[in-house]
Each structure stands twice: as structure tokens, then as C-alpha cells.
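can u pls check wat happens w/ acetamide
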Amino acid sequence: MKYLFSLFTSLFLLCNTLYAETWKNLIPQPVQVEPQAGQFILKKGFNSYLTSLDYENQMNWLVEKGWEKLFVFEVVAPRKVVTKQDLSLEGVFFFHEAGMEPESYRLEITPNQIRLTAGDQAGMFYAVQTLLQMLPPAIYGAQDLELREYALDCVTITDQPRYAYRGLMLDVSRTFYTADQVKEILNWMAAHKLNRMHWHLTDDNGWRIEIKKYPQLTEKGAWRGVGEVTPPAYHQGNGRYGGYYTQREIKEVIRYAAERNIEIIPEIDLPGHSRSLVGSMPQMVCESDKAYISINGETNNVVCVGNEKNYKILENIIKEVANLFPSQYIHIGGDEVDLTSWNNCPHCQQLLKEKGLENSRLLLNEFASRMENILKKYGKTMAGWEEITEGDQHRPETIFTAWHGVKEVQKCLDKGYKAVMQMCEYNYFDMKYSVAERGHNWAGIIPLEKAYSFDPESLFPDFAAKGQIMGVQAGMWSELLGYPARFIEHQLFPRTCALAEVGWTPAQLKDYDNFEERMYQAHFARLYHMGIAFRVAPPEVLYEDGILWVKPPHNSSVIRYTTDGSQPTAASPVYRATIATEQPENYRFATFFGDELSSISVGASNIDLYHYLQPKTTIETNMTFRKAQELEATLTCYDYKKVARTDRPIQAGDYLIYHFEEPVTCKRITVETGRPGISFYGVSNGYVEYSTDGTHYEKAGEFEYNQVSFLPEKAVKSVRIVITDINDWYMAEFQNLKIECK
Ligand code: ACM
Ligand code: ZN
């Protein structure tokens, strides 16, 4: 995952930092930074000294990740505790100070010493993380820098977190990440002082944790595909997709996380979002033949809560989970349960009657209480999504993960439970950064500034004062992360840097402009050297009075452009001054970071870039559609937000033809399928053909990522989509043709 970076780039990034004030560009911003006169020059012969063996691991971390990357010479780090008279030596000292706040530290750099002081391992780990940020960003990369000396500006930093819980929820069900990939994410979290990973291990789309008593959960439930218990989804077409963690791997990930001060909270998402569970163990569903489709488009994904045998199975599962994970908490889900099966199941209705519940919604509360008791038996405290708070009270120590809007969350807080904030409109990093970029948008658009602006205390001032807000976490749901490769890194970064500051830095020190400056001055370079394929912000482009104006996202940004409408590459010319042109629609611009990372390409936002033609068109198809009467109007209106949705899965032999009334002469035709900008329900298996006479067709191209684009040489009479196999399971969506004029 490491980038090769050019010598020029690394030298540039190195020099940039060498002459900067080394305490300046820290993320998250510490509580107090007091610059002092002078510098400590690190050069051959300086030593590290422990005043307590407690901090040996942190000292070794600094030597390995810092000094060894930086210097051509070896740094001595003796495994012995120094005596009082050694305290005046030159070098790096690790001090223990009893009574310091958890995770807090002090970092003092004087002309002859670096002193790191903490009251616990976590605090010392963070002192080291801060010190690493004072070194050149390239120390995070694969290459050693081989310097002979390095100057640190003198400073005193006193620091502690705003919230005790600073996390990331990682959904490994919809897109699976191997144990090694998860470790890499843990590394990135640690560098940002995040200390909790909420591991969303199960959902409809895959059961990812080995349970020894029920091997079928991973033999069957970890796989999606044709004939599997979970249907193909998310661009896998007819392929088999999946994976899971063995308990051995999980133990190793837990150990690795702990080394980085990260606690892992496992989630087994119940009783909804359970397609992979009930698909593997069909006896767990309700006795009801009423069909339903959950909000996520799943059928049959709810556990029967009226079947006593299910609690025994769940207890057996929880027992293994509880034995594996040292965390106090196990998250049992509880979100988005479709009530159809409970409403129609004799066992669930019997339970409802016995308990005197008003409606099936309250069966969730009943279920959560049962789970709470099971967890208690194994020494664990329950965590759940905010839905679990509805109904009677659970134990006071139960916590919930807030995810809806302010009003809903407020109601849950009113009941007195503590909460972790993962609010959809701020913290769901599966949302888009901007309208034109890929991602979900149901909770809105989440640009970096919005992610940064999150402040739980101003949203819920009463509850903050009562200590009910434990902290914050990013929500990394993974429906859309299957492609392009490494899209998770794009969605996480730089928004996770903003979240780190939301969780760590006091509200009064938060300042977006200042944060952005620190990102551009140093932190993007750190991310780059860590090998993270982070999102690069596109420029803004306007066309006025015959001139193209480009506003880069930052004055240090490199913008490249093309003049033929294509995506700029590292070989494209650099934009240096406004461009006078009569053909602004041919220009595309993108921001580059190094040669490897670039933004989406954009043209002038105030002109029609494509001149799409709108020929009179009719539709012919053998598929059936949800809004059959509207089909033709929807697909021939040339409104690119509109889609026509089938009412059944697509299959080999299906087709859809766009017939033009008159043959159309054009430069390019693009056939896009799936939901615009989100790409669910596109065509994975199929191709496009076109005809010049409406009878004889020739192939234009195979679908790739839901799309085919072609350059017809003659006037086109018809365009035919031919389906060769299934796509994302239960429906497909078709869009208007994009026909670019010559
Ligand atoms: C959720 O987004 N269903 C918690
Ligand atoms: Zn039932």
C-alpha cells in the first residue's frame, strides 16, 4: 500500500518541515502549546532514558518509528531505569507522574532534553505520537531518511482528550477487510489518537466472525453469490464474495489494537440486519409467510423473538464473543428492524400478549432486555443502536450509539443512558464529500468542514454537563466501498482527521481555517507517506468573459488540466494562470497531490459542459418495471437524476432498447445504469450494442462499473442494453442516455 514517491517530492516535503516551527502543525490540536526559545538538535550520540520501566514499549516505539526512520546513526535506548544524577544528561527522558488524567501527557523540549511525562501507558503513547508529528512527514513512509541531525523547536505541550471515547465504526460485513487491512486502519487511527474501534462484524451481507459452535455461520453466512444464503450485491454481479476472521485472527487484531491504545467493541447486529445469520440457521426466523423487504432491501432478515430456542443459540454465540473480546461492551445492534414478520408470527404475538405490550415495536425492547441479561451473565455491558432505548428501561450502565437526528437522539438521552455519537449527518463517512463525488447522500453531503463542525456539546448541552456523552465516532458503512479499489481510504481521510480533532481538542480551540492550514502544511503529507489514498478536493472553475478562472482548494495545490474533456493525469500541464478560450467546455481540471492522488475532474461550473442531445426517443423492453406507465417518460426525458426501476431481478436474455425517431449523429454515447452517483442496482453483467438502421446491431462494449461509453462512427438509430446475468440482486435501475454532440 505504500506509494513510490519521487525524490523531488520527498525532498520538498522534508525541507518544508525542516524549516517550519516543528510544534505547529499537530493534528489533533493539543490543549496547550507553549513555544520556548531555542532548539534541541538531535545528532549522533543522543540517548533515550527510562525513569520507569512502564514506558519501555513507548520508548521502543519512538526509536523504531521515529529515530530509526530519521537518522543514519543508531540511537541508544537502554532497557534500564536511570538514576537521579543521570537526569541532567542530554537526551530523551520518559517520566511517570502519578495522578495525571487518563491519556494525558506533557511533552517538553528544551535545548538539551526531550521530556515525555504521563500517568498511564495511553498518555505516554500519545506523547510519542505528538513527537512523531514534529518530525518530517516522510518518517511515516517506507524509506529511511538517513539524516545526520534534526532540530526540534523548544516547546511545552500539555495535552489531554476532550472525550474518553474517540472511535471508528468499521462495517466489515458489506465489504470485507482482511485482518491485515484492519490492522492498517488501526495504525492510522492510533496516529490520530483514536482509541475505540466498533467492529460491525455481522449484518445482512455477511457474518464475519468464526463461532466454533456454529461453523455454518461462516461456512454459509460469510458468502454472497448465486445460490448462497446471502444474495449477490454491491457490484459483485454473479461472483462469489466474502470472507471471515478466525478467532485466532481476531485475537491477534485485538492484541495489535491494544498495543496502540485501541479497544475493540464487537457488534453482532441483531435481531434485524440478520440475513447472514438466519440464512445460515433458518430455524431462527419467524413462523410467518408474509414477505417483506427491509429498509436496506433485504428479505427475511429478522430473528424471531418469540422462539425460546433462539435465545439459547444467541447465548452460545455471545459466550464465544465475550470470551474473545476483553472490552466491557458488546454491541447487539437493534437498528432498523422490519416488524412485518413479528406482526405475523404466532410466537412473537404470543410473547407480545404475555408481556402486555402495545405493539410489535416494543418486542425490540423485550429482546434487548433478554440480550442484556445474557451479556450480564458473561460479565458484559450492553451497547446498542439508539432504537434499543425505546420502551422500558434497561440497566443504567447500558449505552447506546446515537445515529439519527438531534430530536431522536435527545429523546434517547432523556432516558438517562450514556451515548456514543455517530450521528448520520456529521459522522457517516459513507456520505459524499460533494454532490459530484461518489457516495451516499441520504443523510446529506458531508464535506470536510461539516465533519469538523460536529460539536456534541452544543447540540446536547444538558447531557454533556451530565456526562452522558461518552464521545464520538466515525461511521464507516461499506456498501459503496467495493470499488474503486481503496475507496475506504478516500471516504475516511481526511474526514477522520477532522473527527480526531472533534474528539480530542477543546471546543474553544477548534478553528476550521486553522485546521485546514495544518492539514495542508503537514498533515496531508503525513497521510501521503502513510500510504493513504485520501480524498483530494477538486478546484472550483468558472468561465467569465472568455476566461477560465480556477480556484484551487489551497494556495499550495497543484492543478492540472486537459483540453479534450478527459481526466487530467500526472502528465497533464499544470495550471498556472487564467486561460482565455472560446471552447471552455473542452477543459477539465483536477487537483493533484504528488503524482498518484488526484481529485475528480471538473469543468467550469457555470456552463453546460456536455451539450447533451435530446432526440425524441421510445423504449422497448422485455423487463417489467415498478412504475410501468412512467417507464417511457422517465427514460426519454433526459433528466439525469431520474431512473426507471425494475420490479424483479434482471437475468440473462433481458434487454432494453432506446429507439431514436431520427438517426442521431454524435460524438459519444454513455449508457449508465444504477442509481446516479451511488451506483446501486447497476448492470454488472451485460453489454451495449447499437444499430444504424434499428434492425442490425453491433457491439459497443461490455458493462464496466455499471457503464458503457462508445464513439459511434455513423448516425445511431437504436441503442440496446443486453443483460447476460444477474446484478445487485433484486432490481436494476436504468437512466437516460448521455449523448454528446459532435
Ligand atoms: C444504522 O445506520 N442503521 C445504524
Ligand atoms: Zn416470531
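The longest helix spans residues 512-530.
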